[in-house]
Specification:
By secondary structure, the protein is of the alpha/beta class. It has two domains: 5-105 and 311-371, NAD(P)-binding Rossmann-like Domain (Rossmann fold), CATH 3.40.50; 113-299, NAD(P)-binding Rossmann-like Domain (Rossmann fold), CATH 3.40.50.720. 32% of the residues lie in helices and 13% in strands. Strand 10 (247-250), helix 11 (259-267) and strand 11 form a beta-alpha-beta unit. The longest helix is centred in the first third of the chain and has 20 residues, at 109-128. The mean pLDDT is 91.
C-alpha cells in the first residue's frame, strides 16, 4: 500500500514538529509554494495537479488561492482539508460538503484569545490615542490637548454612563472580548442570531439586532465568519447608522466589510475612526486609499492573533498547526477528528471512509490533550 500523500498548501510549521510527526506515521508531504504575493491564476493549476494524488490538504490561511472545488475535486479519495486557523473562508466548504470531504479548523485559545486580546489593544489604542501621542512626542512637541482620550467605563460619582461596546458575532472571539472588557464597567451589547439567548446572559451582554446595535454603540467590533449573509455586511447604509464619533474595529474577515464604503465613511466623517486587521485583498495594494487615511485608521497586516507561544516563535499558529495535524492523522486512519467545521458531512464521511486506515505505520494515533477540546459531539 502506498504512503498517504499530504499537500501542505500553506506551510506554517516553523518548528517542523508537525511535519515530522506526519512523516513518522508514513505520510509523504508535498510542501506548497503559494504565497500572499502570487496571483491565484498563476498557482491554482499547479495546486490542482499536486492535489490529484493527495489524501489530505493541510495549511494556514491561503487567500491568494483558496481551496476551491477544482482543487478538491481532483482526487475522489480526498478525505480532509485541515486548517490550522479558526477561519475557513478560504475553503469552499459547500463544495467540500457536497463531495463528502471533512473541513477541519483550529479554534485554539492561542488563535481565538490572541485575536480577542488584539482587538482590545486596538480599541484602547484608538480611544486613548496612544499612537498619535507617541508620534507627537517623537516629533519634538509636548502635550497636545487635541489628543484627548475617551473614558471607557461608567462613573457613579458624576453619573457618567460610559461608552457602549457593540459586538457583531458572539462566538469564541467575540465572547472573549466581552470577558476582557467587562472589568471596564462598560455597557456591552451584541448581535448574533445563531447563538442561544442564554449565551448573552452568561457573558452579561444585551441582545440587539444589527441596525439597533450600530445606532447605540460607541465602538463596533466585528467577529463573524464570512458567509453569503455576512459578505459586505458593513456597507454604506450600515456605516450611516453609526454615531459620528464612533469607531469601527474589524479583526474578523475582510470580506465582511465594503472597503470602499468604509473609506468614504472615514473621509466624510460619517464615523470617527477605524482599526482594521483583515482586508478584502491581502496584502493591500501599495496605493490603497486605506494607507492614506492618516490617523483616522489603524492598520494591521492580518496578524492580530500572532503572539509568541511558549517562546517558540510560531506566532500563535503552532497549537493550531498541531491540532490540524492530529485531525489529518485521525482522518487517515478512518476516525472522525474532534474539530470538524462542516459537521453535517460527518455521517456521509463515515460511510465513505469510516474505519478505513490508510496509514502505513501500524502504530495507533494517540489522543492528546494538547490538540484541543472536542468541538462537536456525536
Amino acid at each position: 500500500m502506498p504512503n498517504p500523500r499530504i499537500f501542505v498548501f500553506a506551510p506554517a510549521d516553523h518548528s517542523k514538529d508537525s511535519h515530522e510527526r506526519l512523516e513518522k506515521f508514513g505520510c509523504d508531504l508535498i510542501i506548497g509554494k503559494a504565497s500572499w504575493n502570487t496571483p491565484q491564476s498563476e498557482i491554482e493549476d499547479e495546486m490542482v495537479d499536486i492535489s490529484r494524488d493527495c489524501d489530505a490538504l493541510l495549511g494556514t490561511s491561503n487567500r491568494s488561492c483558496p481551496i476551491s472545488r477544482s482543487i478538491m475535486g481532483t482526487n475522489p479519495d480526498l478525505r480532509i482539508v485541515s486548517k490550522c486557523t479558526s477561519g475557513v473562508d478560504d475553503v469552499d466548504v459547500e463544495a467540500a460538503t457536497e463531495m463528502g470531504i471533512l473541513v477541519c479548523y483550529a479554534p485554539t485559545e492561542s488563535n481565538c484569545n490572541g485575536a480577542a486580546e488584539g482587538t482590545v489593544a486596538m480599541i484602547l489604542a484608538r480611544l486613548k490615542k496612544t499612537i498619535e501621542r507617541d508620534r507627537t512626542i517623537k516629533s519634538g512637541k509636548w502635550r497636545d490637548t487635541g489628543l484627548m482620550g475617551r473614558y471607557l467605563g461608567r462613573r457613579d460619582t458624576d453619573s457618567y454612563p460610559g461608552l457602549t461596546l457593540g459586538i457583531i458575532g458572539l462566538g469564541r472571539i467575540g465572547s472573549r472580548v466581552c470577558e476582557l472588557m467587562a472589568p471596564w464597567h462598560m455597557r456591552i451589547i451584541a448581535c448574533d442570531p445563531y447563538v442561544p439567548d442564554q449565551k448573552f446572559t452568561h457573558y452579561g451582554v444585551e441582545k440587539f439586532d444589527l441596525d439597533a446595535l450600530l445606532a447605540e454603540s460607541d465602538i463596533v467590533s466585528m467577529h463573524c465568519v464570512t458567509t453569503p449573509e455576512t459578505l459586505n455586511l458593513m456597507n454604506a447604509d450600515r456605516f450611516a447608522l453609526m454615531k459620528p464619533d464612533a469607531i469601527f474595529i474589524n479583526t474578523a474577515r475582510g470580506a465582511n466589510v465594503d472597503e470602499a464604503a468604509l473609506i468614504k465613511a472615514l473621509e466624510m466623517n460619517v464615523i470617527a475612526g477605524a482599526a482594521i486587521d483583515a482586508f478584502q485583498e491581502e496584502p493591500i495594494a501599495a496605493g490603497s486609499p486605506l494607507r492614506k487615511l492618516g490617523d483616522k485608521i489603524t492598520l494591521s497586516a492580518h496578524m492580530v492573533a500572532y503572539n509568541e507561544s511558549y517562546g517558540a516563535g510560531d506566532g500563535g499558529i503552532g497549537p493550531g498547526y498541531r491540532w490540524a495535524t492530529q485531525a489529518i492523522l485521525k482522518a487517515l486512519c478512518g476516525e472522525v477528528p474532534n474539530n470538524v467545521f462542516n459537521v453535517e458531512v460527518i455521517e456521509r464521511w463515515k460511510e465513505r471512509f469510516g474505519g478505513q486506515n490508510i496509514l502505513t505505520v501500524p502504530e495507533p494515533v494517540p489522543d492528546h490533550p494538547g490538540y484541543g477540546p472536542p468541538v462537536w459531539t456525536s
